[in-house]
Specification:
Strand order of the largest sheet: 2-3-1-4
Number of helices: 4
Helix content: 40-55%
Shape: globular
Number of domains: 2
Order of helices and strands: HHEHEEHE
CATH topology of the largest domain: Alpha-Beta Plaits
């Protein structure tokens, strides 16, 4: 069906529905919009983890900048994957922690390799990928 909407019925536990309705009341969204967003996010994440092909997103990296050699290592890795990195932003969070947000676009397998390379570095505390549908 093109250009319209399809109505569906779903079953949901009462406590989850209550939590959803509390969010909706505070946010101003409606149930349909929230469920559409959740389905899109689920499908995007599923495709990224189970299928190959091009994706776009942002790597969010938290690391201890006092860890010996971490900044140089991360820079070297980023140079290695320059063909899929489109932009980076570096934020000093406090005396020890830095946040890097790395925009990526390219083949999902190559982005997974980049993530694995970064995660193996001593001093990396957390690494997440936020994927958006293309």
């Amino acid at each position: 069906m093109s250009g319209g909407v399809t109505r569906i019925s779903i079953s949901i536990p009462p406590d989850l529905l209550k939590e959803l309705d509390n969010f909706i009341e505070k946010s101003g969204y409606d149930r349909s919009k929230v469920i559409q967003m959740a389905i899109r996010n689920f499908l995007t994440d599923y495709r990224w983890t189970h299928e190959s092909g091009d994706i776009a997103g942002a790597l969010i990296l938290l690391y201890d900048h006092k860890s010996r050699g971490i900044e140089e290592s991360l820079t070297d890795i980023q140079h290695e994957y320059g063909n899929i990195i489109t932009s980076t932003m570096h934020v000093h969070l406090d005396e020890n922690n830095c946040l890097e947000i790395i925009a990526v676009k390219g083949e999902s397998g190559r982005i997974k390799e980049l993530m694995e390379s970064m995660m193996m570095e001593k001093g990396v505390k957390q690494l997440k990928l936020a994927v958006v549908a293309k």
